[in-house]
Amino acid sequence: MAAPNSSLTAFSADVASLATQASQCTVALRNRGHAFSGFYWRPDVIATAAELVSTRPGDRISILTPSHETVDGVVIGRDPSTDVALVRAPATASAATAAPSTVPALGTLVLAGGRSRHGATCAVGFIGLTGARWRSMRGGDVGPRIWLDIRLRPHAEGGPVLDAAGQFIGMAVLAPRRRVLLIPAETIERVGGELLTHGRIRRAYLGVGLQAVEVSPRSDKGAGQSGLMIISLDPDGPAAKAGLQQGDIILRNADLAQPASVDISRSSQHMKINVALAERP
User: What is the tens place of the pLDDT at every residue in 38-75?
Assistant: First the structure.
């Protein structure tokens, strides 16, 4: 009989230890007939994938805890633009421990935890892609683009992802074309904080209807400049109160921070107008 490979045995033991650690914070949720996973983000708050939570804030959702208890949770809020949802639940397990806010390196070994009605599950893989920050189709700032080279079963979507050191680095979600995305821990922290405080993500509101236009054409000296023409104004909105007018062209390099300093072109004259953005009604 061949002697056991000590390196493989040690690796197997390390993976088993990671799986056990992930299982201690991972829950199974059931919402309108759909089963998926989540994890204790705070001692009494579960995070999961927003696209899987079809109920409204305040509604109840069934949770199977790491100790195999079935309890009711209450939806705190959800942000479909970043795919983050929070559920208030009894404090029955420890929360995931987040890694330092750094992008995991390409090729890093990861473990995705999940939970089905039969028990805890896991899948092992690697960071398959790391890219620049990106926004979802719904406009949410998801953070760095990270793909997982891993086989994720539907019931495990919304579960935690740990690195080889056992630290929480994000949440695994399914994407089109069978890709598995990582919603980074720092994104969950940022969005989750808003949901805990306000129950929703507050969006800045300018109060204008816009149409893309060309300000100056492309030439041999370089690219042209484009902008956004104001075609309608909310008379009670921030833009109208600041003096913006129909026909003004907001230049694409405008700083839309809070408060917004908006660079515009009006009758071929460039000017800057300060606008105090409001929350979207």
Answer: 999 999 999 999 999 988 888 999 999 999 999 999 99
Give the burial class of 233: count Cβ atoms within 10 A of its Cβ; 0-12 exposed, 13-18 middle, 19 or more buried. middle
* Domain 1-202 annotated CATH 2.40.50.100: no
Q: How many helices (H) and strands (E) does the chain have?
A: 3, 19
User: DSSP class of residue 96?
Assistant: P
pTM summary value: 0.78
Mean pLDDT of the chain: 89
Which fold does the domain 204-279 belong to in CATH?
A: Pdz3 Domain (2.30.42)
Strand partners, 127: 148
User: How far, CA to CA in Å, does 57 sit from each of 64, 100, 125, 236?
Assistant: 20, 30, 34, 29
- Domain layout of the chain by residue ranges: 1-202, 204-279
pLDDT value for 277:
77
